[in-house]
Amino acid sequence: MNYYFNKNLTFVFNYSYFNFSLDKSDIKNDGNGDGKVTNTDLPINTPKNKLGFGINASYNKFFGSVFGRWVEAYDFFSGINVAASTDPSIIYGGSPVVENTRVGRSWNYGPLGGFLNFDITAGYSFTKHVTIIVSVSNLFNTRERQFVGSPLISRLASAELRFNL
Fold this sequence. Notes:
The protein has a domain at about 1-20 and about 50-70 and about 115-165. It is about 0% helix and about 50% strand. The chain contains no helices and 13 strands.
């Protein structure tokens, strides 16, 4: 949803909710063929809740934005990949699911998501052909992992000098 306060100020909001249920009594839901139905047989691999919000502003030749994003922590199971909370009752790839240990053939760093981060961008248009933009992603250097087996995503600052021909 976008709300335009005026031609120079916009509020941005988005929310996603996803829920599912798994009929554990229906053997057709046995995704890995082990004869029993567990939560890992339906790897949805998405958080239940996600929220994004921000403000875009412009004034004469200046422009900028601040955007925040919250992603609820969630467990991820897919093939040999695991990113999940500790639950020794779940056996995956022949191993109990424990954070910061090997589970099956891959390392389990723990669940994905579980963060709130902010990005900020500011710019100035010198002419209609020349613009400078400075941005910082993950402004507060939040502990953030978005993909299985990936390193933490830390703060990233960048500057851009853009020429439009």
